[in-house]
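Just scan my protein:

——
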Amino acid sequence: MLAIIIGTNWSCKENTILPKNLVPAVDNINTFDSTISIITHTLYQDSFLTGGLKGGLRLSASTSYYTACGSISNDPSFGSTQASMHVEVLPSVPNFTFKTTTANMTIDSIVLAIPFKMAFGDTNFSSITQKFKVYRSLDTFSRDSSQYEFTRDTFDVNRPLSTLNVNFNSLPRDSVFIGGKMQQPQLRFKLASWFGDSLKTQVDSGANGALATFSKFLSWWKGFAIVPSSTKGNTLGYFETYRTRMTIYYRYPKTGGGEDTTSDIFSFDPSYCNRFNSITHNYSGSKSNSFINTKSALGDSILFVQNEPGLVSLIQVPGIHTMENVIVNKAELVFTTSATQNFADTLAYGNIPRLQIFSTDSLGNNDFVATDYAAFNSASYVDGKRSQVMINGVNSIQYKFIVTNSIQSLISRKDSTFRYKIMGANAGIPAAYRTILTGSGSQMDDFKPRLYMIYTKFKK
């Protein structure tokens, strides 16, 4: 039951929000608190941007966005995940030519290299080698359009450019020694000789060839598709496709006899090239599958949350729109991990370091809760970071969100369609990490999610 303040001396506007360090202490005379029940469900969040341009955000040009590749075949709680990459490269200049005529040169090898950032998954299972294959992309993916996790590259599966066995136990230590320094670990694909022959032909064609302009090259060679060719393994790798390099190693006759060796480098160029991720989840046979989109009246007993793209939690605060106008001093959403999650699985995959919160409605339109994120110009005010707590002698993980402004607005607008949505803040690593939370349908009252409020009734 909501507490009502009578005879208070407060006299201010209903949209006045106090910074959290100025929230008055609850004295049950002028300031009251209340814990409000919420209803929670698990849904799948689609349309996650993985490349190209959307609303002024050119994700393909972000240096802090990493691309996933690999397979998680058997997460008992979240099923399987498959991820593949698309990346494009360009020569350093238009009208590119080799350092000698192609008639006098011999290409020794062409190597596509993509720096390795990190791995996510079951490291006890990652000793199983995953096989990656590289293909020539057949579709044009404009950097001025949007690519999502469901965007699929097309390629000729019968003509691979390269095959590489990848072991995520050894990959972090697999680097080359150049210029007296150990380089960052990377995927290194030796490309098929037919690609070098095709490239030489285009160079020889001069102004009529694909190397005459950047746009001609990208029209001729639409990029590389790097895909896991097997579903074994429980690890995703994350790669800095922004720093993709294709090095052409070749030799040619020296003046006076003998041969010289040299190389040319084609790179990912954020001003012209595009890159994106294709990510597929399959929850069949996993624990989460029976909890997705249940529409249970009391909500789900367990909530499954992943970093985008993946499962999210939809939050309803029933009856909040009927509450009389008050001054909301503080409103905090609290979520606690479920005691039912398997320790071994959590150890392997980890809990999400930070959740993010969106506003949404019954039509599924969602965005950041702008009023809360902008309240003090800092996401740290809203929070969502993982923290450890002790509840009834049980070590648990909690996530808290300060939603004072949006709750104040909700009460004032009397909006019955408003919902919150929470999901992992991917921090540039899509589909990594997941968390199992206690839902509103749980019988474990001390672990159930809640909205905690401190508020007063303003003087009329």
